Amino acid sequence: MSANGSNGSNDSNDGTPATPATSVRIDIADRMKRWHGKVAVVTGASGAIGGAVAKELVKAGMIVCALSRRRDKVEKLRVSLFDVAGNLNCVECDITVEEDVKHAFGWIENAYGGVDMLVNNAGVITKCLLTEKNNTRDLYTTMETNIIGLCLCTREAVKSMKARDVKGHIININSIFGHKVHQAVPGTRPLNGMYPASKYAVTAITECIRQELVYLGTGCKVTSISPGLVEGDIVSTSSSKENDIVNYMPKLKPEDVAEAVLYAITTPENVQIHELVIKPMGEFL
């Protein structure tokens, strides 16, 4: 009797290789068991991607602390989660304000002992051109949120992980714009502004963090996930108002990005997904 439905013979002359006796299936649900009861911080959980990530982590049994300035949206997500293994907390925090970040992570340490995972998802995009007058505040807002806020949260998370000798994981939700500045349609207003520069910085920062984690001997992993256009995210929402063509472009679902996060955090201990780019089929950016 042969295994896995094979014919039990490799003597056929049709050139078809025999079916392997065994197969390997990556069971993410099983691998997520190592994170059950662990604490994850998710920034920007009031948004489409952050909300989807937070939901999947809670379903997997994690204690998720959502850092957000919009408690109402996080609360709406929390009450929608029935019969799940984990729980979701909203921690009001403006990640561009250092004292807010310190207070948030301090609260998490007092309540749950510390942080095991950080998902840096919070981000902003503005409509101003780099050469536009009176754009100073918009420029600072983009850099303070997308870069400085990410670094502040990472600093506090690594501090917590290192103090408790935790082999944690840091996920930076990046963008395809962190690898390529897309070409504006001739005659139309460019939509890039400071956003690609901030995401290029995230690409570099992720590698710098990786090197620092190795130097510190923490055993922590860091992953940059760069999605293309995503339904309901800040890029799609902002761009569609200025450029009709965006409405017809193929898009990922927020859940697709959440699945990518689960993939990255369930690799074997000796494997680190450092950079993951995911695009919707047919994307032409």
Characterization of this structure:
The chain has one domain: NAD(P)-binding Rossmann-like Domain (Rossmann fold, 3-Layer(aba) Sandwich). The N terminus is likely disordered. By secondary structure, the chain is of the alpha/beta class. It is globular and about 55 Å long. Helix 2 packs across helix 8 and helix 5 runs parallel beside helix 6. It has eight helices and seven strands; from the N terminus they run αβαβαβαβαβαβααβ. It is about 40% helix and about 15% strand. It has a seven-stranded parallel beta sheet, sandwiched between helices.
Give a quick precis of the structure.
The protein is built from 8 helices and 7 strands; from the N terminus they run αβαβαβαβαβαβααβ. With 285 residues, the chain is α/β, with parallel strands linked by helices.
Q: What CATH first level would be assigned?
A: Alpha Beta
User: Strand pairing plus helix content: what structural class?
Assistant: alpha/beta
> What oligomeric assembly is this protein in?
single chain
Computed CA radius of gyration, to the nearest angstrom: 21 Å
If strands are numbered along the chain, what order do they take across the biggest sheet?
A: 3-2-1-4-5-6-7
Shape: globular
**How many structural domains can be distinguished in the coordinates?**
1
Fraction of residues in β-strands:
5-15%
- Find the CATH superfamily: NAD(P)-binding Rossmann-like Domain
Low-confidence stretches: 1-12, 20-25
Number of helices: 8
- Give helix % range: 25-40%
Q: What is the terminal-to-terminal distance?
A: 52 Å
The tally of strands reads 7
